[in-house]
Amino acid sequence: xxxxxxxxxxxxxLRGLDFEAAxxxxxxxxNNFPDLTFTKSFQARLAALALNVPVADIKELPMKQxxxxxxxxxxxxxxSSGDETPSEKSEA
Length: 92
Known about the structure:
Blueprint: H1 7-12, H2 16-28, H3 40-51, H4 55-59, H5 63-78, H6 86-91
């Protein structure tokens, strides 16, 4: 069973090297979208890394749950409003 409620906390524990490794894996899988953070496939890959499960476990979730996981990962990157700059977010 996935602990999706802990996704934000676990994403926060990842480092730049984790991101770059996931990015390299995603590119090797054929995803050539310019900014991978906008793709569900990459969001699922990062969620899997954060939750310490195979990416297939995320991609095999029921569709609604899969989208919730991907949206949670997207929101981790960009917040729900997108109105703040990264420096404003870190000062809050």
